[in-house]
Amino acid sequence: MNRRHLLAAATLLPFSARAAEWPERPLRLIIPFAAGTSTDIMGRIAAGHLSRGLGQPVVADNRTGAGGTVGALAAAQAAPDGYTLFFGTSGTQATNPAMMQGLAYDPERDFAPISSFAKTAVILAVRPQLGVRDLAGFIALAKQRVVSIGTAGTGTTGHLTQAQLDLATGIRTTHVPYRDAGRGIADLLNGTLDAFVYHPLGLAEFIRAGSLKPLALTGERRHFLFPDLPTMAEAGAPGVVVEGWWALFAPARTPAPIIARLNALTVAALRDETTMAELRRQGLEVMGGTPAELAATQHAELTKQRALVKAANITPE
């Protein structure tokens, strides 16, 4: 058999046969946000574990822009051969598809779930000078006058929290989006804002110093950094549950044996004590789980956020 016939025969091999030889060269992990962000830090942790488990380099490829959609589209359009992976977020896989019209990728059609990675709730905090002691007091104040809530941008977990809180309690707060969360926190501290919603680690030093007062957390359960802080449901706003999450995906139609191996390696990484300790240092909760569980999480979040975006009339900036 000549070389041409051999090449033709190789292209006819079933995916399972080709997957058995995988990986034979380096992989790339598309990270849709810039170096140094939480998404980048976690993506590189995942890449390191996968590289050791696969015996091949897993190279981080930061494809930034348009709220993560540039990287997501690059991953969705990549060949489903196991050599391109994607470190997706609740933003790229649920919020952006719910909020942006004409998005060039479909989060369920164009991606193969591998494993959830980590998640975090966010905290609603106020300056002590506002004079409210708890969430009930904040809601009462918002019914008396216009109250401003700052967030790290449109479509973020903070923005979704502000929108859900308004819908759940009947108040109408003013959303103030910031591209730089540090500037938003500074405005909260100097009295320009009444409240700010951000992740626990980003607010921790101000809360511990007494500069900011946390009112409630948006998780289903209390956060390990602030075990005494009630959830929104416990504080009087049932149904206000907003969690940002990160997960590993591949392009749709990536062979099932490859997905299974990547899942096993990712779950093992999340059980590693060093990985768990690093994620906790970032204020994050470890997730993990099967591809089917990640698919269910994504579908539920997409459905929920589409309903919220419609009810709150949220539009991209």
Furnish the topology, listing elements before pairings.
Layout: H1 3-11, H2 15-20, E1 27-31, H3 38-54, E2 58-62, H4 69-76, E3 84-89, H5 90-99, E4 111-121, E5 123-126, H6 135-144, E6 148-151, H7 157-169, E7 174-177, H8 181-190, E8 195-198, H9 200-208, E9 213-217, H10 232-235, E10 243-251, H11 256-270, H12 273-281, E11 285-286, H13 291-312
Parallel strand pairs: 1-2, 1-3, 6-7, 6-8
Antiparallel strand pairs: 3-10, 4-10, 4-11, 5-8, 5-9
Helix pairs in contact: 3-11, 5-13, 7-13
Give the key terms.
317 residues; alpha/beta; D-Maltodextrin-Binding Protein, domain 2
Strand portion, in percent? Answer: 15-25%
Number of strands: 11
Low-confidence stretches: 1-13
| CATH architecture name of the largest domain | 3-Layer(aba) Sandwich
Under CATH at level 1, the class of the largest domain stands as Alpha Beta
The total domain count is 2
The tally of helices reads: 13
Q: Level of helix content?
A: 40-55%
Tell me the CATH topology of the largest domain. D-Maltodextrin-Binding Protein, domain 2
Radius of gyration: 21 Å
Major sheet details:
6 strands, mixed
Notes on the protein architecture:
It is elongated, with a radius of gyration of 21 Å. It has helices at residues 3-11, 15-20, 38-54, 69-76, 90-99, 135-144, 157-169, 181-190, 200-208, 232-235, 256-270, 273-281, 291-312; strands spanning 27-31, 58-62, 84-89, 111-121, 123-126, 148-151, 174-177, 195-198, 213-217, 243-251, 285-286. The protein has 317 residues and is an alpha/beta fold. The N and C termini lie far apart (60 Å). It is built from 13 helices and 11 strands. It has 2 domains: 26-119 and 243-312, D-Maltodextrin-Binding Protein, domain 2, CATH 3.40.190.150; 123-235, D-Maltodextrin-Binding Protein, domain 2, CATH 3.40.190. Helix content is 45%, strand content 19%.
